[in-house]
Amino acid sequence: MKSKKQKILLSFVIFLSLGSLQPIWSQTKYLNKLWYRQPADEWMKALPLGNGRIGVMVFGDVENETVALNEITMWSGQKDRFQERPLGPELLSDIRQLFFAGEYAEGNRIVTEFMAGTPHSFGSHVPAGDLKMNFKYPAGDVSDYKRELDLNNAIHTVTFRIGNTLYTREYFCSNPDDALIIRLSASKPKMLNLDLSLDMLREAVINAANNSLEFTGKVSFPKQGPGGVNFMGKIGVTTKDGKVSAANQKINIENATSVVIAFDLRTDYSNEQYRQDCVSTVGKALSQSYDVLKNNHIKDYSNLYSRVDLFLGESDADKLPTDKRWEQVKAGKEDVGLDALFFQYARYLLIAASRENSPLPANLQGLWNDNLACNMGWTNDYHLDINTQQNYWLSNIGNMHECNTPLFSYIKDLSVYGQKTAKNIYGARGWAANTIANVWGYTPSGQGVNWGLFPLAGTWIASHLWTHYTYTLDQNFLRDKAYPILKSNAEFLLDYMVQDPNSDYLLTGPSTSPENSFKYKGDELSISMMPACDRQLVYEAFTSCIEASEILDTDNEFRDSLSIALSKLPPIMIGKNGAVQEWFKDFEEAQPHHRHTTHLLALYPFSQISPVKTPELAAAARKTLEYRLSAENWEDVEWSRANMICLYARLFDAQKAYESVVQLQREFARENLLTISPKGIAGAPYDIFIFDGNEAGGAGIAEMLVQSHEGYIQFLPALPVQWETGYYKGLCVEGGAETDLTWKNGKVEKALIKASADNNFTIKLSVDGTIPRFLKNGKVIMLKQKDDGFIRFGLKKGETMELKYI
């Protein structure tokens, strides 16, 4: 059998059309900024900074500045030996017999009693508190106020005048120097007078001495159970001119011309020397000049951010403040400039939240925390039934492969903790993880099985390991990191599945289709055998493992066992309503308006359904989307709307995809362009920032511009008329390449492929047969079109092939 991914490693086909536009890659530099003419008066109007560990929100107030402080390991909770109920294969077999016999109500009752998890100290990520800066100015009116976040260098700037003095503040979170750095300056000497203090959200002891503030404490957040990390934070300052004193839990600065502030916050999560690290980090930062700190930061950050550029056309709103642009979109307008900014903002946010040296991956709120999500029943944790996955959908296509590193470390931890769940509950080898996860090794079902029992959630998050390989072709990564985890999970799946006596198919279960329910004999139920998403995830896991074992030339017998199991899986089915069937049985949906569409994983992020190779299933997937979107009280949220962009892009429906791009900005984003889960959904009493909408939205925009999952590159597969002229630089494709593209009037003018790994490429030209000029490494070459309509060439790592139609 030829697996779905082998063709990626063999060749690409690129569909191209005609046009003309000469790109100027620096054209969008001035557009990649969020800026405002007034300070933020609430958290959702403040602007985010982050270095992959420290995350802050800057408000920019003139007299009373607030900087909300977070650190990714600020977690409550603790490890819990009693978080799952041991079940075992015999009782599991008895439970399954109930489902095979059609006794679904009784099966759901027993599953609820015996398979629900029992978290006692689950915990949550929590915010630390606020840095407060109280300024004293001479009499005079404030004028020329502006606050700006420049995505090109990840520096937040606040400027304003009082009288004839210009005040400037710069804020950035440095990864190389591992600290928040703030510089305050005035255009005239000795005009800075302020106090620094802390408004803590955690119980802490604050000491002021030696021009610094130090605070220590232990996280206590009983709402999510006992336990919590120990933490320490430090704020240090240096000044040009003036006097500094520290007392009464404040730092007082008088008559300074400029001030540099360094902040660090550490916890004992996987770090016994957190106190020493905190003190030394601040000391080392302040021992360097501000210019050195700033240059270190820009060089480090730009290495990631500058890889990609995007221009989708000029907008009448390009010169307006960001909140005014957002208000116009809210009022019904479209803004192509804001579309491009939203995409680049998503890249910026992932770089800010997830770096190679981050101790944890991005959670539900990235690494920021508004003190709202952690107070919800669902906590600010790692949801593995779509949210954490969406956080990283943009990483590979968006040319930020390194940002995956903390996610992969976290998956490795899950694979260790999940061995206990696999053994104790299912009597299986390998590892499994369910819907919710924390930093303390929680892998069983949540307390409510109707949403929490999803043993293939671990399979889904682990698929990111294989996706990373298909984009990078890094065989060392595949051999040393990805394959052992993928293989272990596939072992669990082999042991977990059972033959259905009624159909002879291999089925998973009992499980849920997150987080939906069905009707059966008058009951509304959630648990059944092999919902469609399980089938799709098993298929993805097995085919990926088969391919990986072939590439690594290992585990022949294991590979054969996976191939045999694959042949016994049920097909993806179409229900009586013409849509993709969500459960193994064609049940009636109890919640046709439900926000989850997990049975469409086969369309995106996977490629088991496509208009190209499975047109009937693609049509059924479209019906699924139509039914959801037209259902009364459709539960639209930030992640479901972002998901619609991706799904419609895969269906080549440019206008439907674009409608969701606009809807995401219009209904599910705020003035700072952070996405929100709206009040009333999942029990939320208010709008809550959730990171996944930004990231999945950015991924969807990229998917509209280039796709490579079919084994070939397709440029502009879902280009809406609003983006008829534009360019991008640096988007990645599967098989190890970066691509640049320019287009005009919806037609490609120039394309560039740069190999990041040795590979062979195949190009299929446009249907009109027009052949471009080919330039390999800048030199014109001749390539002949063969009878099958393809042109083929090979590239070594670093080599380029350019296609020009001018």
Task: Describe what this molecule looks like in 3D.
It is a single chain. The protein has 806 residues and is of the alpha+beta class. It is built from 19 helices and 38 strands. It has a nine-stranded antiparallel beta sheet, covered by helices on one side. Strands 2-3-4-5-10-15-14 form a seven-stranded antiparallel beta sheet. It has a seven-stranded antiparallel beta sheet with strand order 17-31-32-33-38-35-36, with helices on one face. A hairpin with a 4-residue loop joins strand 6 (142-150) and strand 7 (155-162). Helix 17 (638-650) packs parallel to helix 19.
* Gap from first CA to last CA: 42 Å
Total strands: the figure is: 38
β-strand percent reads 15-25%
Low confidence ranges: 1-26
Read across the widest sheet, the strand sequence of neighbours is 1-6-7-8-9-16-13-12-11
Indicate the percent of residues in helices. Answer: 25-40%
Task: Figure out the total of helices.
Answer: 19
- Which class do the helix and strand fractions yield? alpha+beta
Radius of gyration of CA atoms, rounded to a whole number: 27 Å
| Biggest beta sheet attributes | 9 strands, antiparallel
Mean pLDDT: 94
Q: What gross morphology would you assign? A: globular
